[in-house]
Structures are given as C-alpha cells and as structure tokens.
Design a protein that fits this description.
The chain is an alpha/beta fold. Helix content is about 35%, strand content about 25%. It has 2 domains: about 180 residues, 3-Layer(aba) Sandwich (Rossmann fold), CATH 3.40.50.2020; about 220 residues, 3-Layer(aba) Sandwich (Rossmann fold), CATH 3.40.50.
Length: about 400
C-alpha cells in the first residue's frame, strides 16, 4: 500500500492496520495555478511522473513558462520530502504486487493520476485507488488510471475535499513519519509452535490464534523444513491467520538420491500421507488446507492434489516444476498459482506449458528480474505476498449445513 503525503498518510495508516499491509509513500506534488495554489493544473511525482490538466491551464491562462516555473519548485520540494520520509530506505518493492493507492480525497484527480502512473511504472500488477471522498463522476474522470476504484462517499454536490472533514488542517511531516512508523512496526502474531512426527522426520507446526486454514509446505531439491526462504513465507501466512506445516518429504539419506528428489509419485505420496496426518491433528482438524510447493515440491503438490480423497483449497508453486507431474495436471481442481522468477527463463516456459494443461482456475505470476531462488532484493517478499493473497482468497471454512464462508 502507498499513501499520498501528506494528507493521505493518516488515512492510509488506518487502512494498512485493518489489512495488515506494509505502507510506503508515493510522493506527489500538486502543480497549482499561480496565485491559486490549491487549484491543481497538474501534478508531478517520483520517477518523473507528470500530469498536466490542460483544461485548467487554458482556463487560468497559464503560459508554458509559468507552468515550468511552478513545476521546478514542486519537484525540488518533492525530492526533499521523499528523502525525509524514507530516511535513506529504498521504496517498498511493488513489482508483481497489487498496490492500494490511498489519499484523503480526489478533487481534480491530477495527483491521483500521477500516483497511479508512478506505481505502474514500478511494476505493480494491479492498481486500486481508494479514497474517503470523491466527486460522483470520479471514476470516469480517472478511467484507465487504476484497475479498481473505491470511495466511501461520492456525492453529486462536491466543491472541495476539505468540506467533508471536520478538521482539515495541513498534515505535518512529523505526522507523516509517525504514520509510517506505526504502520510498519514489526507485527508478531501469537503463534503456537510444536512438532509432529512424520516417517521422514519431525514436522514444524505453527498455529496462530483462531487459525483460518493450514498450508502444508512441500519442499523440493535444495531446501527443507528449515529453509529460511520457506520460513519467511510461512511467517507472512501467519499474519493472515493461516497455520503452517513445514516438513521434509525425504529422509536425509534419501535426499542424496537424485532420482528420488525428482520422483513425483514418491514425493506426492508422502505429501498425501502427511496431509491425512495433519487433518487428524487436533489443532488443525477441520481446517481447510492448501499446498505451497517449491521446486520439485510443486510436482508433489500436483500429485497429492489429484488423489481421490484430496480436497485442497488452493495450491501455490514457487519456482516449481509442476511439469514433472504432467499426467496429473488435468485432474487438479484446486485453484493454482504458479510463481516464477523472470530470469529463470527455462522454468518460466515449463510453467507456461504446465498451466496450459491445468483445467482448474489458475494464474502464472512472473516476478521481474528474479532468479530461481528469488534471492534478489524484494523478490521473496513479493512471493510471500502473492502466496498469502492466493491462500486468503481461496481457503475457506465450511459452515454447518455445507455453506462456505470466505475468509
């Protein structure tokens, strides 16, 4: 999520708290009409984003030289604020993510349009513009700027954003910094961690308070239940109220045999048996479940999901090889998300082919610039966010009478 400072920050911090989302700033400066600075004739943003409202420019009789002078002043202020708000920290990675752009309201829409353009330029896969108040025709004014629009109030009579606030005093830089600090303070959900015995070794079971579902991690070659990459994803799932089970599909001795590492039948059978054990485990019994498969673990997830007694709610593959279980791909019914690094070209193509053979709801998400291990800055955070969004969307809890209540 990104806020348009200054006024958007106090609004965005409340939304970020409700969604449990990280918050960054999208620094935009209004280019105001000379002598009427509150009337926007355009806007400028980071990364060179620029919007000109030609209707206002013409109506106010502003010359190109006058516009350029105001623009230069606002770009200098923009640079100052961006440096102050981030205090040397890089912007939050947006590539491949759904990004919520939040402001305190929309009037002409110039600032919102510049913000959406900047967010798209940074690689956002989906942009949602959300404000408390906007004119009734705001979506037509901003058509194409975002993929979705949300406004709490869009009255037919609209003069200015400030008329809808009891207190519309100028937000200070200190208040923006306080909002960012509050939104991004470390959140550590209460999670009970214990071990569960599997034939291949102990499983690490983490259960947050009031779990909404459980995700079993199927590891492939080069990783295991203690992999920092998998634990990072698991921690993100915990914040969404999802329990996790991390375990090894092979014993240490078996893992030395490369044939077994690439045997989808063996790995998938182990995962199916582990699933039955997990579904009988009292803290997890009755919860909807899903699979997170990494590398050859993705093939195990596909194999297990196609078993007759399997009913996974969702599958996510990270840099996976679902193609190794090609014969079972058409049998999978669980919504499946395939996440692949853009630099991992061979695996990207294998996943494209695998997706073409799926008959269930599916998506392929390529993380730009990421390699097979997603070791690049921000890449694994993107994986964790994408996986969490997918599981939160598709893992559901059955209610009495057979109805399903979505999380």
């Amino acid at each position: 999520m990104v806020a348009l400072p200054r006024g958007g920050a106090p609004v965005a911090v409340e939304v970020a708290a409700a969604l449990g989302a990280p918050l960054d700033v999208c620094v935009i400066r209004k280019v105001g009409v000379p002598g009427q600075p509150e009337l926007a004739m355009g806007a400028v943003g980071e990364d060179g984003a620029r919007v000109v409202n030609q209707t206002v420019v013409d109506a106010a009789g502003v010359t190109p030289e006058q516009f350029a002078a105001v623009e230069a002043h606002e770009r200098a202020e923009l640079a100052r604020r961006a440096a102050a708000y981030r205090a040397g920290r890089p912007p939050v990675p947006l590539a491949g993510r759904t990004v919520l752009v939040v402001d305190d309201g929309v009037a002409t829409g110039s600032s919102a349009l510049a913000a959406c353009r900047m967010v798209r330029a940074r690689g956002a896969s989906r942009v949602v513009l959300a404000v408390p108040v906007a004119p009734h025709d705001w979506t037509s004014r901003l058509a194409g700027a975002a993929d979705a629009f949300v406004a709490v109030h869009a009255p037919s009579r609209f003069l200015a954003v400030g008329e809808f606030y009891q207190d519309f005093r100028q937000t200070t830089d200190d208040e923006v910094l306080a909002a960012l600090a509050r939104a991004n303070q470390p959140h550590h959900p209460v999670v009970e961690v214990h071990e569960l015995a599997f034939p291949t070794g102990p499983a690490s079971v983490a259960v947050p308070e009031h779990p909404l579902g459980v995700v079993l991690f199927a590891h492939g070659s080069g990783s295991g239940r203690d992999s920092p990459r998998n634990r990072q994803v698991a921690e993100r799932l915990h914040r969404e109220g999802l329990a996790t089970v991390l375990f090894d599909l092979l014993t240490p001795r078996e893992a030395e045999d490369r044939w077994k590492v690439f045997d989808p039948g063996l790995l998938g059978g182990r995962l199916a048996e582990a699933t039955r054990t997990v579904r009988r485990h009292p803290p997890l019994a009755g919860l909807p479940f899903g699979y997170f498969g990494a590398s050859t673990g993705a093939a195990a997830a596909v194999w297990a999901a196609a078993e007759r007694d399997a009913e996974p709610g969702a599958i996510v593959s990270r840099g996976g090889r679902p193609d190794l279980a090609r014969a079972r791909l058409p049998l999978v019914t669980a919504p499946t998300l395939l996440i692949v690094g853009g630099a991992d070209e061979e695996v990207v193509e294998l996943n494209r082919q695998a997706r073409s053979e799926l008959r269930c709801e599916s998506a392929l998400q390529v993380v730009p610039g990421a390699g097979h291990l997603f070791a690049e800055p921000g890449a694994l955070e993107t994986v964790a966010d994408l996986a969490t969004q997918w599981f939160a969307r598709y893992l559901t809890i059955r209610q009495p009478g057979g109805d399903r209540a979505e999380h």
